Amino acid sequence: MESKEWDSKTRSKAMDVSYYIIHDRRTSKKEEKPIEIKLYLKGQTPRFINTGIKVSVAHWNDASKKVVKHDRASELNAYLAKILASFREQELRMKLDGAIDLKQFTKPSQSAEVTPGSFGQLWAAHLHKAKSTNSWLPDVIERSARSLQLITEFRPHIPFNKVDAFLVEELEEHLEKYTLPGGRFLTKRQRHQIMSDFWYIYRVAVDRKLVTVYFDQFWEATVWDEESNHIIKPDSATRYRTGLNRLRNFRSNIPMAEVNKELLIAYEHYLDSVISDDGTPLRDTWKKKLIGHFRKYYYKAIREGYIDASQDLFRYSGYKNKYAKAKHQNRTALKLHEVRSLMELEIPGHKPGWIRVRDAFVFECMTGLAFNELMQIYPSSIRQAPGGKVYYMSPRQKTDSPIELPLHALWEGKPWQILAPYLTEEGPA
């Protein structure tokens, strides 16, 4: 059954081709039938082009010529509109060439043109494309599908205009409380992977201009992207997220247009008012680092075209970093006899936590390892050689340069004596 024009403008005097949206209603209400577009031009045989969309009568409004009450209504209606827009562009080009031929009209690709109606639909469509093109490894597809399922349980329908800092905070809280079958909670690594998948799809939405890009969200998405692509190390990613969280404590959902001198000065005033957990103000050296983190992702936003380079606030606004001259305080190193005093310090047996802290600190002093490197020591990191020799083998986290520490030779073997009781398959206690 033919419908009338898509709208009043479709058949204006400026256009010789008429377009009609057709949906076959001569079926049962549950049976899905294709939606077609009829192209009519006087003097030529009418042409019917299948849009590739099938819906039942219950999901079609013949008056508005739109899909209704359907899970993908927004997506399908957007695609219909794009088809018509494409046809009109093709007609105009043919007019300029001097002749219109209905046989030459082509339909745009649905997979490339469909606009999803929600964040979850975009994710599902991206997964489907990855499966059909084998562009992802099977385990990556499976993992992303699990992440999508968990986020759908958190919120079945997430409009693109609701993908903001508040949503991210609620999602992270949801994942921390989420219980798996058997009553187990998600591990930190599992939560990290789910958020990594989330931010990957967010970047897809950004590339397709489906979401409003706020500065703080751009910052967070970029950190996740850099970490997942091994551009920055996990420790660096943690520092940049810490800097971002400090900014969000001041203000979140910051439009790109409002990232200016006034914002940065207000942020500095906020940092001056912050009191640390120990009851002291933030050190100027730490404030300097926080402004440095801000600057790093500000320039990334410029490079990706979200901020006009001619409006560079660090170069053209007269802004001056009040913490630029802040210097690190001199650190006093322990003397050898002080380290030995710590080693020999008697701690009551009912204070095992104190003993662990003492042992960890002394081990770091003896080996030169950082605390985060100490916490990454596993049995596989230890190589025992004949003659009671014991070596710690691992790349340094900051430089990736390999290190080999002879634990048996340092401090008469004391580092190995400290480490051995704590070493388990899960790492040091």
Indicate the topology.
Elements: E1 2-5, E2 18-23, E3 33-40, E4 47-55, E5 60-61, E6 66-67, H1 73-97, H2 110-113, H3 119-133, H4 138-154, H5 165-177, H6 188-207, H7 215-228, H8 234-250, H9 261-273, H10 284-303, H11 313-316, H12 336-344, H13 352-367, H14 371-374, E7 382-385, E8 389-395, E9 402-406, H15 414-419
Antiparallel strand pairs: 1-2, 2-3, 3-4, 5-6, 7-8, 8-9
Describe the structure.
With 429 residues, this protein is of the alpha+beta class. It has 3 domains: 8-97, no CATH class; 119-317, no CATH class; 336-422, no CATH class. Helix content is 46%, strand content 11%. The chain contains 15 helices and 9 strands. It has helices spanning 73-97, 110-113, 119-133, 138-154, 165-177, 188-207, 215-228, 234-250, 261-273, 284-303, 313-316, 336-344, 352-367, 371-374, 414-419, and strands at 2-5, 18-23, 33-40, 47-55, 60-61, 66-67, 382-385, 389-395, 402-406. The protein has a 4-stranded antiparallel β-sheet with strand order 1-2-3-4, with helices on one face. A 3-stranded antiparallel β-sheet has the order 7-8-9, with no helix packed on it. A two-stranded antiparallel sheet has the order 5-6. Helix 3 (119-133) packs antiparallel against helix 4, helix 4 crosses helix 6 (188-207) and helix 6 (188-207) crosses helix 7. The longest helix is centred in the N-terminal third of the chain and has 25 residues, at 73-97.
